[in-house]
Amino acid sequence: MTQTAGSAAATSSRQRNRWNATDLGLIAVFAALVAGSALIAAIPVAGMGVPITVQTLAVMLTGLALGPGRAFAAVGLYVLLGLAGLPIFSGGRSGLGVLAGPSAGYIIGFVFAATAAGWLTVLVLRRTAGRPGRLRAVLLFAAAMVSSIIFVHGLGILGMMVNAKLDFSKAFLADLVFYPGDVIKNVLAVTIALALHKAFPDLLIRRVRTGAGAPAGTPAAQATVDHRP
Amino acid sequence: MSGHGFLLANYVPGNSLLHRAPLWLKFLLVVGCGMASFLIVDWAVAAAALAVMCALFLLSGAGAARLYRAVRPVLPVLAAIGLFQWWQLGGPTATRIVLNVLVCIVAASILTATTPVQRLLDGVASLAKPFQRFGADPERFALTIAIMLRSIPFIAGAYSDVRDSARARGLERNPRALILPVFITTVAFARQTGDALAARGLGEADTEEHAPPAAPATGHALP
Fold it and tell me: What is the largest CA-CA distance in chain B?
């Protein structure tokens, strides 16, 4: 490969090349986690009559844990393989036929909701860097709620309008059923995400520092690479 | 659910015309049905299309039981939509809406019933090829898919282990005790996987400026 070709490839794919082997592992295993969460039975919650399904929880947690780029890749990979025919959507459904069903919008919405939640998480963690406390938890919950309302519920309603030919008000009412479970899942997702970031402090923070030090360029990137175990 | 057995659920081995048809043609069939579902306005046309799709499905030799199993998951919700739209928009329109969804689902199950999972995954991996000039790396993409597939049984096992230990401590109704350990295990497992890849020189980007000494060998087969 010539020098110019190499540098051209490097500039055009800089974003992609930041993903090292650990990032690939996280993307692949979190995609498997979303798939596994869709397949297991619903989990009972104390004080609630209805058990909750873990899938949307896993989707939001992927965003909260991995940040926008890797969350987009992980949930996108899950949706792509589900559409390709692996029985990994909830209820063991699979294939392109899902796109014709009334829940199509929700499945597409997962990808964008996880990305948006990841983007907002990076913002929140950066702004509350010095004082991790209740404020951080509340802001993360708001981030998860906003992402799921805009993308999961928004695209979910759109999917019901397109595929089941419901009009907006009917689709909106049908979608309201999912809100109580969503609030509970997002509270859970935030507590779990905070515990995850405590257990693995460099899961996302290293990314945030790399992003903040981007103008500094190579030295900052070099430093983070050197500290990697 | 050990190994990859559960991933083979949809494929029916055979040697019919549909089995031998190229993947892109079957994909076009599914996309065509998806487009048609927006254009068909007459329920009789939708019924005819559904009949054709069902005939194609049976032609593949997969059998009526398979056909029923393919549409069964959506039947309750389709029944609900059908009844609601019958009340709102009348019989013919409701029938057309439900039949159109069924056409798409049967067409999609023709694709998955007559194509081996490995072939489908190769098709997905080849999706990355056109994006190569924008920095996509088909080899790393295929590697990520392979890691994901072999991780699904691990995740399922982690869930059942954690559920057992939560039950032993009397916490089977505490969702945090049921989920958090799975996620901790998952992140740790992902990091081990990443380290294992890095140790073999797999998964690192080709053109990274500060690349490790061992450049990834492009000839390696997937694990």
Answer: 70
Asked if B203's CB is within 8 angstroms of A164's CB, the reply is no
Minimal CA separation from B204 to chain A, in Å: 5
- The CA distance from A69 to A155, in Å, is 20
Tokens of A169: 């008000």
What SS3 class is residue B46? helix
Instruction: Say how many C-beta atoms besides its own lie within 10 A of residue A193's C-beta.
Output: 27
Q: What angle do CA A131, A138, A178 make, to 5 degrees?
A: 155
Give tens-digit pLDDT for B95-144: 888 888 888 888 888 887 888 777 777 887 777 777 777 666 777 888 88
Cβ distance B151 to A94 less than 8 Å, yes or no, reads: no
Query: Of chain A residues 86-145, which have a CB less than 8 A from chain B?
Result: 86-88, 91-103
ipTM: 0.74
Closest residue to A22, CB basis, from B175, B191, B205: B191
Enter the tokens of residue B159.
């869930």
Residue B162 tokens read as: 């954690």
Chain-chain contact of A25 with B117 (C-beta, under 8 angstroms)? no
Size of interface A-B (CB pairs under 8 A): 245
pTM exceeds 0.90, yes or no: no
Q: Is A32's Cβ below 8 Å from some Cβ in B?
A: yes
pLDDT per residue over A101-150, tens digit each?
778 888 888 999 999 999 998 888 877 776 767 888 888 888 888 988 88
